[in-house]
Amino acid sequence: MPMTEIELQAELNDLRMSKEAQPLFDAVKRHIAENVDPITEEFFRLGEGRADRWSWAPGQLELLEGAKNKAKAAGLWNFFLPHGDTGTPLSNLDYAYIAAELGKSPLSSESLNCSAPDTGNMEVLEMVGTPDQKERWLKPLLNGEIRSAYVMTEPNVASSDAGNIETSARLEGDEWVINGEKYFISGAGDPRCKILICMVQTNPEAARKAQHSQILIPMDTPGVQVLGPMRVFGDDHAPQGHMHMRFDNVRVPKDNMLLGEGRGFEISQMRLGPGRIHHCMRTIGKAEVALDLMVKRGNSRTAFGKPLSQLGKNMEVIARARIDIEAMRLIVLKAAKAMDLLGNREARVWVSMAKAMVPERVCQIIDQAIQIHGATGISHWTPLADLYADVRHLRFADGPDEVHYMVVGRDELGRH
Amino acid sequence: MPMTEIELQAELNDLRMSKEAQPLFDAVKRHIAENVDPITEEFFRLGEGRADRWSWAPGQLELLEGAKNKAKAAGLWNFFLPHGDTGTPLSNLDYAYIAAELGKSPLSSESLNCSAPDTGNMEVLEMVGTPDQKERWLKPLLNGEIRSAYVMTEPNVASSDAGNIETSARLEGDEWVINGEKYFISGAGDPRCKILICMVQTNPEAARKAQHSQILIPMDTPGVQVLGPMRVFGDDHAPQGHMHMRFDNVRVPKDNMLLGEGRGFEISQMRLGPGRIHHCMRTIGKAEVALDLMVKRGNSRTAFGKPLSQLGKNMEVIARARIDIEAMRLIVLKAAKAMDLLGNREARVWVSMAKAMVPERVCQIIDQAIQIHGATGISHWTPLADLYADVRHLRFADGPDEVHYMVVGRDELGRH
Amino acid sequence: MPMTEIELQAELNDLRMSKEAQPLFDAVKRHIAENVDPITEEFFRLGEGRADRWSWAPGQLELLEGAKNKAKAAGLWNFFLPHGDTGTPLSNLDYAYIAAELGKSPLSSESLNCSAPDTGNMEVLEMVGTPDQKERWLKPLLNGEIRSAYVMTEPNVASSDAGNIETSARLEGDEWVINGEKYFISGAGDPRCKILICMVQTNPEAARKAQHSQILIPMDTPGVQVLGPMRVFGDDHAPQGHMHMRFDNVRVPKDNMLLGEGRGFEISQMRLGPGRIHHCMRTIGKAEVALDLMVKRGNSRTAFGKPLSQLGKNMEVIARARIDIEAMRLIVLKAAKAMDLLGNREARVWVSMAKAMVPERVCQIIDQAIQIHGATGISHWTPLADLYADVRHLRFADGPDEVHYMVVGRDELGRH
Amino acid sequence: MPMTEIELQAELNDLRMSKEAQPLFDAVKRHIAENVDPITEEFFRLGEGRADRWSWAPGQLELLEGAKNKAKAAGLWNFFLPHGDTGTPLSNLDYAYIAAELGKSPLSSESLNCSAPDTGNMEVLEMVGTPDQKERWLKPLLNGEIRSAYVMTEPNVASSDAGNIETSARLEGDEWVINGEKYFISGAGDPRCKILICMVQTNPEAARKAQHSQILIPMDTPGVQVLGPMRVFGDDHAPQGHMHMRFDNVRVPKDNMLLGEGRGFEISQMRLGPGRIHHCMRTIGKAEVALDLMVKRGNSRTAFGKPLSQLGKNMEVIARARIDIEAMRLIVLKAAKAMDLLGNREARVWVSMAKAMVPERVCQIIDQAIQIHGATGISHWTPLADLYADVRHLRFADGPDEVHYMVVGRDELGRH
User: 3-class DSSP state for residue D186?
Assistant: First the structure.
């Protein structure tokens, strides 16, 4: 017997991790502590100061593969897939708890084959891929053998309105011919990146929601050009990068179309719900890191005869950070629960609430942590500047704040 | 077998109303709709423009008693008492859901014998009162026959630091002799107010936490003087008022001491946890009223050719209000759940989080609702100005924001 | 030789009071200290607790007339009139300095015949009044014998868009017949209020900017009904009030039209520039009062062993208030100077900058002063709650914040 | 005859550029437009992608020297020096106007020999240098032949409290022996940097304000080690850099001491007033760049059928930016004027007001410009990310915000 509306609403407030997920959650934390934290510093040190910035340094991938193999051996692999017969099926709610842990360190997600944008790409392939597409791309992705990128944003239009996307795909015989310019293609610099899922306009004459499609483009297709990295606050994030790309008469087989021509927005809806929640929950983890650093610095440095934490507004800043982290955590958990109970479509207002609230406020928390560190806070001696750049970036990615406020505002206006 | 710490933490996120409370919740909503809403406008109209402002107008109490009797008949009575053998025992979590409904209209709480400060006073009497004290004061309070006041704040010291309280009680023979000045004694103007619970300093030489006591003072004791009402933004709230009082050699029997000399702070701790959560949850209800009015006005008024809701930042203001209301609701529910699971003492940081977060942000939401109404918003044509004054007041009552930030901040600093 | 554009822009930054105005400025300060401050408390005490709230108490007007007569005798009279042959002509810049002093106490403005809305009404009459209109209404206003009101805002439309105004005036023979409803008519409750300047719609078919007119309506005209006071945060401001009025077939002679039919907006432009600056500069004075009280309280009250001013964020709150007061002062002075040098029309963006910036920020400063006072801050024991209500009201009056941001924003967009 | 206090206060509001400075101001703008803007893009392009990051690329310095020579030839050289017989003496007020122009592009300051930290270092040398010191270091600095750095901040203490500085200088015979660690030494990576002014602790036993000294250290002294660059949001700012340095038994002649042992804070006071104002005024220029970009992007990009500038809160964001830029400009001008009229010491509260207000608010304006650009805003395709990093850095440099609020707050508390 299905739940009544009242029962559903009540159930939405059960934000507990399931008992079944607890062992996995514990195992993930243990894995991070035992297999990831110990290699993180060395991994990044190996990559520093290289002439050939767009490859991995000798030893880097070996370290990472070591952690991946341990995760695979422990069964901590691909569990992000909510419907997966290929992974451990987890509810969005349970995954949200885990994602908060993953957000605390930069290598954790990949060590578990759970890093963006591969997770979203794998989800899409699993849901809408043909057997051939799954065999060729999903399988090596699930094995962690290759990586992928999601090719959406364009430099020449306001991509916040996805209807503006103008990279074109035109059918010529048995091939789609793709032309256009994209940027901020995260991960496309990685030598391991072999496949792109690309949003293209297939029919400018169609109804607004049916003009666009998503299509698979192997990285090595002629005409796929990586023009260079986009720097984010001066950092090129080599060798993975957020790449600027051009597609110049790129030809792919007709069968590379996902789900069907004109169904690009439909696929976007599929991927965005969970993806946004994963992002937001990882961001809660980042906020925890920032608050932890803020407190430690506040307790350990002294000025004018007192620990910084006792000076001026600092204690209130710390308290507000804690309060808002807890509030954001609950909102993200509720959005995850809403996806589990109501489906992505019905949950979309909850998802937009989380996406609008979290990155903006966490940017502030990181910024306050920076301030209490003095100039050290913007340097490479703490992870704060990187965290800031990441989370600042998130205020555009998957829809800018403004679009999510619009979703929530329209729903509110409509309910009265 | 008691829960492990991990199980406890997990359980704290089960924020569902209990299935047992749902019928009560429904009955309360029905009672408000059927018995309270229909009399509210008349109740206040009767009270307007009176020469004798400090009495109830003919007919007012009759209306209210009618609603109270219906509630009593329906068993909707005294359910706030968490440990009560005299009422329906409700968890703090369940009560929080109900309180959000009570906050939406000014007479609901009293119609169910659930209004401040009587609820807190009844709780204290039930927990620490002697059989005589219970017979004489708790019984008529539980019956809704009399009302009470809580006498804490003093005009001459910063009462945010309760250790500053200087109204004195000195034992002379079998009597305590009380001298001092208090203000903002809510409800002490009501002719039905018969008993005061008063915070006094009994021993300035004792350890800091043992200097104060709480004592029962019947309203008609010689020397109890009501000097006049404190106006709040110009409104004297007659006939209940927030009164300015003097205690001039007020003598009460030794037995009027509650719990024991020097145990005043202990009693404060008892009353404050639930009281703060009730306040906060009622405040969520007030925020809902404000948002509802904001949306209705935004949709119905037109300027420059568009509904106000479509102009400038208004839709974002509305969206942010919705997001923050949901975030605050979850934080308050979590604080209530923490009291249920951990006890008031362990839950105190959660309670301070809610108390610091909610009144400040709800003031802003009400203020934004005011702005969208134009001058009507600050007038008596909407409830917004009253709501604002109420919630603004709450930023001092039960500890000012600053004290709650201190509680949260110290806890955070201590955990690292 | 007129200044070049560059010279003009340079000159706009000479924000000094003129040497000629300094003696007047000093005399005004002396007058307030000697003649107004000493009577203020008694004036308001006489008005308290009256049964007949809508008249002046015996003795009140005598006190005020005493101060007025002293001002008149000292030549401190009507100096607000910028073009006046009837007063001391002052630049807007010089007047702005004086207005900041007037804002610090509630009776100062009227004691010098410089209170709103009479100042604006007198300006309009002087600029556009016929000799008859001047004789009948301007003369007694300039003498301080009668008072006036400005009748603009309507309850049934969003008056922020003045084009919405729908109170109608229709010509029947030699008379205008006026019908409609207005509210927040400040001062219309005062028994001395004898004349209204009323914004009416005279031709709904005309071009948008030519549909409205301003017309003189003597208070005692049949059909002029005062329905009652609008309360502001619960306070009715008797006996002056912000009145709710109805005009029911009110007939006035054709000659009562100001300037000409359809020229209502033109008159609005005349009055609003200076009026807004006067308001803003008085508001700076109010912010000074609030900051002064905040500092005094912060220095004199102690909690947790320290003066409040040394606790938490309080010193930063105080510093930010000082910084923002100085910034606002300079912006207001610059807007006044722009009116002097460029004329009201060219200066309108500067005026909107001041009007958008000042009331919102000063509300916050007053609110912070309230917070440091605890509950005393919202009571009648300090002027803070009244100041807050006043300045909050100003965020709608003379155009809500939103309209002024629109003016500034459009100008900025247009300049690129 | 000196001005009276009242005349002084009045005079402080004359914020006009002097007539004498206008031609210089015009010449500087012309120089930037004709000699600097045309070389800027090429200058930075030459520096990109170099293996040897810590040298200038062939051609870079030639471009810059070309612009410098043109400036020198036009007499636009060293005019920052307020007391200079070596330059064009300018008031702080006049210089503030020019600095706002310099802030708009990254090469302007150096092209005029007016870039930090050389300006401060030259000022100090001119004021307190011995003839020998001037000959050896000031002369080539004034000629633009060498560059210099200011060595203050330390990684191991909270340098916001300058009393914490612990790099030591101990006298051994005729030499000072210096040991310690410093970081964020701006410009010390530049091959042209030849001289350091270094804050050292010379006597930990002295009175708190007499423990520190400032001393000249030639860059090529044995023991001066550049450990590497501090990255700012990931950018190392090669080849100038913000360097991490160690001083390991660095020996300099006794005569290298500036002004005298124990007078380090005295020198700090000299340099900080003007330096802070120059920084703040350049920051106003940066805010203008950001607002300009925000408006252009808002007008040129379209989403949901409208230019971005017409969507949601964007127009209000733009209006608030304009208002606050004008307010900040006036505050900075007033602080500069206060230094001119009252001297650096008396003006210090005004300087702290500007320093506390400007960088924080300009960071927000740049951030809002970033948001309206989408991901382009954080990339290297606009100057916004660099501007943000620069201005964010400024919230620590020359005293963090918190210290300046303390200066203003204490002054305010002291005046009551």
Answer: strand
Chain D residue numbers with beta carbons less than 8 Å from the beta carbon of A395 are 371
**Gyration radius from chain B CA atoms:** 22
Taking all residues of chain C, what is their mean pLDDT, rounded to a whole number?
94
The bridge status of strand D175-186 relative to strand B147-151 is unpaired
Distances C5 to A149, C2, C12, C92, C335 between C-alpha atoms, Å: 55, 9, 11, 21, 17
Q: What is the pTM of this model?
A: 0.96
Query: Which ranges in D301-395 belong to alpha helices (H)?
Result: 314-342, 348-373, 384-394
Structure-token pair, residue C42: 């008694």
Q: Are B81 and B126 in contact (CB under 8 A)?
A: yes
Q: Where are the alpha helices (DSSP H) in C152-307?
A: 264-300
| A 150-189: CB under 8 A from C | none
Nearest CA in chain D to B308: D312
* Chain A: touching chains (3 or more CB pairs < 8 Å): B, C, D
CB B276 within 8 A of CB B398: yes
Any residues with CB less than 8 A from the CB of B86 and at least 6 apart, and which? B78, B126, B142
DSSP state of A310: G
CB A269 within 8 A of CB A254: no
Which of residues 318 through 377 in chain D touch A, CB cutoff 8 A? 370-371, 374-377
Half-sphere exposure of B43 (CA within 13 A, CB side): 20
Compute how many other C-beta atoms are within 10 angstroms of the C-beta atom of residue B350. 25
Q: CB-based burial of residue B196 (10 Å sphere; 0-12 exposed, 13-18 middle, 19+ buried)?
A: buried
Nearest CA to D187 out of D242, D110, D142 is that of D242
Residue ranges of domains in chain B, CATH in brackets: 5-142 (1.10.540.10), 148-258 (2.40.110.10), 265-414 (1.20.140.10)
Do strands A193-201 and A147-151 pair parallel, antiparallel, or not at all (unpaired)?
parallel
Closest partner residue to B389 among C233, C397, C402, by Cβ? Answer: C233
Q: What is the ipTM of this complex?
A: 0.95
Closest CA to A120 of A323, A3, A258: A258
- For helices B264-300 and A401-414, the axis angle rounded to 10 degrees is 80
Q: What is the pLDDT of residues C335-392, one digit of tens each?
A: 999 999 998 889 999 999 999 999 999 999 999 999 999 999 999 999 999 999 999 9
The rounded percent of chain C whose pLDDT value lies above 90 is 85
Cis bond upstream, residue A239 (ω within 30): yes
